[in-house]
Amino acid sequence: MRASVLYLVIPCYNEEAVLHETSRQLLHKLDVLISKNLIDQRSKIVFVNDGSRDTTWEIIKELHEKNPMILGIDLSRNRGHQNALLAGLMTVKEYADMVISLDADLQDDVDAIDEMVERYHEGFDIVYGVRSARKTDTFFKRFTAEGFYRVMKLLGADVVFNHADYRLMSKRTLDALEEFKEVNLFLRGIVPMIGFDSTNVYYERKERFAGESKYPLKKMLSFAFDGITSLSVKPIRMISILGILIFMISVIAFLYFLIGSIVGVTEPGWPSLITSIWALGGLQLLAIGVVGEYIGKIYLETKERPKYIVKEFLR
Q1: Is residue 54 part of a domain?
Q2: Which of 27, 226, 245, 311 has CA 20 to 30 A from 148's CA?
Q3: In what order do the strands lie in the sheet containing 44-49?
């Protein structure tokens, strides 16, 4: 079996607390894979600095100077996790046979890399790292995360349940990913669209080694909403269906009150009147907001602005 070149791509935003330990574990993992002849000695670790405000980039440069297997990409400004990940993938795809993306916080089990590489050599172009359990999550985090995947499926988005951005992609898969030009990037939904043979590798997600989560509730909700509106038009269709239902209910209510007035039954009517006004007003604002979100995304797409700008590439 021919040894293939593996690149590990790790987006980083304010990750100074974990970088030394992350690099130590990943270097050990590469050494093990090289000794088994599963990957080539030219394999690398690539940290992508997404406009960090701490000493993340300085630490990456220090690690690069100490070990040539560690490379660094510095973006010109913070572009968000998805764009930072894409920047790493697109920058290194010409040097690697396969690329594995993972987070810097060591919650993704690095031992799953072995099985991912084995699945690649079996002929799979995409290998998804899927969480087998959510024991480390709070009830609220587990409930909302799993609810997100179910809602995405319900709305027609082809996403892998309990999969984030821990995945292996072959070079030809990355070449195909480059053909997707949208600015509103949601890789968890875009990668399954590419096709090619894929499989899953299951692992248990660990506690964060150090530092704080970069996805508080507000950011998670924003990320989920971006994912839904980037991959599906069903919310707009649901508004249309809701409008039809409300119209039918209003016709029924009109007939009810008309019959009531004919037979002499009088109703005060104020509660129903005020409730209907507020309900319809709220639904109208919701509908305008959802439609506006789609129009805003169209506006951003037409500008064709770059998703990221690489300031420096240490290699």
Answers
A1: yes
A2: 245
A3: 198-204, 126-133, 163-170, 98-101, 6-12, 44-49, 70-75, 310-314
Burial class of residue 175 in the structure, from the number of CB atoms within 10 Å of its CB (0-12 exposed, 13-18 middle, 19+ buried): middle
Query: Structure tokens of 314?
Result: 């240490």
CATH of the domain at 47: 3.90.550.10
Q: DSSP label at 53?
A: S
The answer as to whether 86 is a domain residue is: yes
- pLDDT given for residue 195 in this prediction: 84
Average pLDDT over the chain reads 80
| Global confidence as pTM | 0.71
The pLDDT of residue 102 is above 90: yes
Q: Are 166 and 132 in contact (CB under 8 A)?
A: no
Q: Which residue in 225, 31, 184, 200 sits closest to 115, CA to CA? A: 200
> If DSSP states are collapsed to H, E and C, what string results for 155-203?
CCCCCCCCEEEEEEEEHHHHHHHCCCCCCCCCHHHHHHHHCCCEEEEEE
pLDDT of 43 reads 94
- pLDDT, residue 162, reads 77
CA angle 206, 214, 307 (to 5 degrees): 120
Quote the number of domains for the chain: 1
Segment 279-297, tens digit of pLDDT = 677 677 677 777 777 777 7
Neighbours of 272 (CB within 10 A): 12
Q: Are 188 and 224 in contact (CB under 8 A)?
A: no
Q: Is the pLDDT of residue 100 over 90?
A: yes
Quote the pLDDT of residue 183. 74
- Two tokens, residue 309: 């700008």
pLDDT at 20 over 60: yes
**Would 253 be classed as within a structural domain?**
no
Beta strands in 35-171 (DSSP E): 44-49, 70-75, 98-101, 126-133, 163-170
- Which range of residues forms the domain containing residue 221? 6-232+305-314
Query: Residues 218-255: pLDDT tens digits?
Result: 656 666 666 666 656 566 667 767 766 776 776 676 66
Closest CA relative to residue 70, chosen from 149, 154, 12, 150: 12
